Amino acid sequence: MSHIPADLHYTKEHEWVAEAQSAGSIRMGITDFAQSALGDIVYVQMPKVGETVTADKVCGEVESTKSVSEIFAPVTGVVTAVNESLVNNPELVNSDPYGAGWLAEISLSGEPASLLTAAQYGEITG
């Protein structure tokens, strides 16, 4: 069974969202369910700092020993930081998807819509 922290929000595409240190920003990553389904992650392509991302649109990809999977932006905004540690250590997404394996921080352009609670996400991943 996947770990689903109650204090985060989620997308149907298996990304998680947490409030970032700076007001009006979020931190995102892929869920424990997603990393488990992908298997050993060997490469992460993230959006670039300064890039505008749009909610529910592709903003990167994760490559594993099994497949390549698209990463969807959970919110609309501007990328303010990316996790540079993943360049040399993409396996952090496997070992700590909600911590050291985060992907990007995004400054919100508006209120996030259609994010799921932990309970709602748990119903999807069953």
From TrEMBL:
Source lineage: unclassified sequences, metagenomes, ecological metagenomes
Classification via InterPro entries: 2-oxoA_DH_lipoyl-BS, Biotin_lipoyl, GCV_H, GCV_H/Fam206, GCV_H_sub, Single_hybrid_motif
Listed name of the protein: Unannotated protein
Family from the record: Belongs to the GcvH family.
Coiled-coil positions: none
Database matches in NCBIfam families: gcvH, PRK01202.1
GO cellular component annotations of the record: cytosol; glycine cleavage complex
Ranges of residues in domain Lipoyl-binding: 25-107
UniProtKB keywords: Lipoyl
GO biological process: one example: glycine decarboxylation via glycine cleavage system
HAMAP family registered for this protein in UniProt: GcvH
